[in-house]
C-alpha cells in the first residue's frame, strides 16, 4: 500500500472568499472533501494523513470515523506541515513504504495520474507529474503602473510591466502533485532540509534523491486565484457522470380501506397486498435508483424472506436507495413516477405524493413528478385487480 500526505494547512488568501480555499465548495462539496475522496477511492492507497491548520481540526471530524484517515496539525510553513504528516505515518508504515504528497487545492487529481506516480516509484526513489511548458516565456521589468502599483511583482499578472527579455522554455516543466517518494528517504530529507524549498522535489534533490517526471494532466489544476474555481467547475461539468434507471412494480388489491401510494394514504374501498406496505409507486422509484447505480433491486437489499420487513414502510427502502446514491457521490437530477390504475383517482393527491417523495430523497419537490394514467379498461389494471407503477430517475454525480 502507498501512504498519502495531503497538505491542507495553508490559508489560501489569493483565492479570495470568506475562508481558506480548501473549505470552499465546488458543486456543493468542499474542496478538501473532493481531494480526500479521490485518494480514498484510488487503488493501492493505504493511510492518508491530512495536515490541517490547528484551527481547522474540528472541520475534519467527518473524516476521522474512517480508520485510514489521520488528521494532523500543521506547522508554520508548508515544509513543516509535510514533515509532520510524514512523521505521523512513519510509525505504522512498512519498511519499504511509498508515500504521495499532494496539495489539497488540486481536487481533480485522477486515479490514472496517481497510478502513474506509484508505478514510477518501482524504479526510482522519487517521481512527480509535470507538463511541458508550451507558451513563450517573457521576463518583465516589474515597473510601477500609472497607479503606483508594482504590477510586475507578486501579482501574478504583470500588467504595466515591460517585456525585457525572453526565457528559453526548452526542458522546462510545470510541476504538479502528487509527488511520490520512498517514505523513509523523503522523511530523512525533510528532517535535515534548512527550509525554503518550493516543493518536495526540491527537498528530495537536495538530499541526493533522483526524481523522474511522469506525465501530468491539465485537469489537475491547482486552485490559486478566484478564477480557478470556475475553471475547475468547467472541468468537472465536462466529466459529469449522469446515470438513468427504470423501475416497475405491481401489487394486487386485497382487503382494506385505503391504499398507500408514494407515501400518501389514499382512501379506497380496497387495499394493496404485499410483503411490506405495498406502496407500488415508491417501490418502482426505489428500484429505479438501484438500477441507476447498478445495485440490483429491493429484493437484494430487503429480502421478502426476511420477516423483519413484513409490513415495513416503503420509505425505509427509498431512503436506503437515496443514501446509497449519495454515498457513491450522486444526487437526484429528477424522478418521475407514473401510477397505472382506474381507481382511486390520483390527481387530487399527486402534489402531496411528489412532496413526500422529495422529502425522503432530500431533493426539491420540483425535481419529482407523480402522475397517473389508465389502461383504457384493458388488462389487470383495467379490470381493477391491482395497481402498477413505473418510474425513471436520473442521478447526477456530485
Automatic annotation (TrEMBL):
Sites where the protein binds 4-CDP-2-C-methyl-D-erythritol 2-phosphate: 249-251, 275-276, 297-299, 373-376, 380, 383
GO terms, molecular function: 2-C-methyl-D-erythritol 2,4-cyclodiphosphate synthase activity; 2-C-methyl-D-erythritol 4-phosphate cytidylyltransferase activity; metal ion binding
InterPro entries noted in UniProt: IspD (IPR001228), IspD/F (IPR026596), IspD/TarI (IPR034683), ISPD_synthase_CS (IPR018294), MECDP_synthase (IPR003526), MECDP_synthase_CS (IPR020555), MECDP_synthase_sf (IPR036571), Nucleotide-diphossugar_trans (IPR029044)
Cofactor(s) needed: a divalent metal cation
GO biological process entries: isopentenyl diphosphate biosynthetic process, methylerythritol 4-phosphate pathway; terpenoid biosynthetic process
Pfam families: IspD, YgbB
Site residues by UniProt (Transition state stabilizer): 14, 21, 275, 374
Pathway(s) it belongs to: Isoprenoid biosynthesis; isopentenyl diphosphate biosynthesis via DXP pathway; isopentenyl diphosphate from 1-deoxy-D-xylulose 5-phosphate: step 4/6; Isoprenoid biosynthesis; isopentenyl diphosphate biosynthesis via DXP pathway; isopentenyl diphosphate from 1-deoxy-D-xylulose 5-phosphate: step 2/6
Gene giving rise to this polypeptide: ispDF
PANTHER family, per database record: 2-C-METHYL-D-ERYTHRITOL 2,4-CYCLODIPHOSPHATE SYNTHASE, CHLOROPLASTIC (PTHR43181)
Positions of a divalent metal cation binding: 249, 251, 283
Species whose genome carries this gene: Mesobaculum littorinae
Family stated for the protein in its record: In the C-terminal section; belongs to the IspF family.
Enzyme Commission no: 2.7.7.60, 4.6.1.12
Function, as annotated: Bifunctional enzyme that catalyzes the formation of 4-diphosphocytidyl-2-C-methyl-D-erythritol from CTP and 2-C-methyl-D-erythritol 4-phosphate (MEP) (IspD), and catalyzes the conversion of 4-diphosphocytidyl-2-C-methyl-D-erythritol 2-phosphate (CDP-ME2P) to 2-C-methyl-D-erythritol 2,4-cyclodiphosphate (ME-CPP) with a corresponding release of cytidine 5-monophosphate (CMP) (IspF).
Name of the protein in its database record: Bifunctional enzyme IspD/IspF
SUPFAM superfamilies assigned: IpsF-like, Nucleotide-diphospho-sugar transferases
Highest taxon of the lineage: Bacteria
Amino acid at each position: 500500500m502507498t501512504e498519502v500526505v495531503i497538505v491542507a494547512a495553508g490559508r489560501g488568501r489569493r483565492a479570495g472568499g470568506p475562508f481558506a480555499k480548501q473549505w470552499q465548495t465546488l458543486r456543493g462539496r468542499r474542496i478538501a472533501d473532493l481531494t480526500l475522496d479521490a485518494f480514498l477511492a484510488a487503488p493501492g492507497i493505504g493511510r492518508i494523513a491530512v495536515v490541517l491548520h490547528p484551527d481547522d481540526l474540528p472541520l475534519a471530524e467527518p473524516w476521522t470515523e474512517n480508520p485510514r484517515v489521520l488528521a494532523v496539525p500543521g506547522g508554520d510553513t508548508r515544509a513543516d506541515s509535510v514533515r509532520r504528516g510524514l512523521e505521523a505515518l512513519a510509525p505504522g508504515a512498512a519498511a519499504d513504504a511509498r508515500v504521495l504528497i499532494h496539495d489539497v487545492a488540486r481536487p481533480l487529481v485522477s486515479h490514472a495520474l496517481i497510478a502513474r506516480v506509484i508505478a514510477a516509484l518501482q524504479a526510482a526513489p522519487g517521481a512527480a507529474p509535470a507538463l511541458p511548458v508550451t507558451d513563450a516565456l517573457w521576463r518583465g521589468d516589474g515597473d510601477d503602473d500609472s497607479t503606483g502599483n508594482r504590477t510586475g511583482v507578486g501579482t501574478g499578472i504583470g500588467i504595466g510591466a515591460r517585456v525585457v527579455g525572453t526565457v528559453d522554455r526548452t526542458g522546462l516543466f510545470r510541476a504538479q502533485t502528487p509527488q511520490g517518494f520512498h517514505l523513509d528517504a523523503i522523511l530523512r530529507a525533510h528532517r535535515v532540509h534548512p527550509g525554503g524549498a518550493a516543493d518536495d522535489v526540491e527537498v528530495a534533490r537536495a538530499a541526493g534523491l533522483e526524481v523522474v517526471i511522469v506525465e501530468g494532466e491539465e485537469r489537475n489544476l491547482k486552485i490559486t486565484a478566484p478564477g480557478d474555481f470556475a475553471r475547475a467547475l468547467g472541468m468537472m461539468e465536462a466529466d459529469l457522470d449522469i446515470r438513468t434507471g427504470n423501475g416497475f412494480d405491481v401489487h394486487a388489491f386485497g382487503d382494506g380501506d385505503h391504499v398507500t401510494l408514494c407515501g400518501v394514504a389514499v382512501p379506497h374501498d380496497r387495499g394493496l397486498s404485499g410483503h411490506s406496505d405495498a406502496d407500488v409507486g415508491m417501490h418502482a422509484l426505489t428500484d429505479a435508483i438501484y438500477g441507476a447505480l447498478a445495485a440490483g433491486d429491493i429484493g437484494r437489499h430487503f429480502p421478502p424472506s426476511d420477516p423483519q420487513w413484513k409490513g415495513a414502510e416503503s420509505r425505509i427502502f427509498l431512503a436506503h436507495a437515496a443514501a446509497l446514491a449519495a454515498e457513491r457521490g450522486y444526487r437526484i437530477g429528477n424522478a418521475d413516477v407514473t401510477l397505472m390504475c382506474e381507481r382511486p383517482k390520483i390527481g387530487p393527491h399527486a402534489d402531496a405524493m411528489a412532496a413526500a417523495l422529495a422529502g425522503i430523497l432530500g431533493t426539491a419537490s420540483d425535481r419529482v413528478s407523480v402522475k397517473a394514467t389508465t389502461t383504457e379498461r384493458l388488462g389487470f389494471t383495467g379490470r381493477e385487480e391491482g395497481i402498477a407503477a413505473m418510474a425513471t430517475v436520473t442521478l447526477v454525480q456530485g
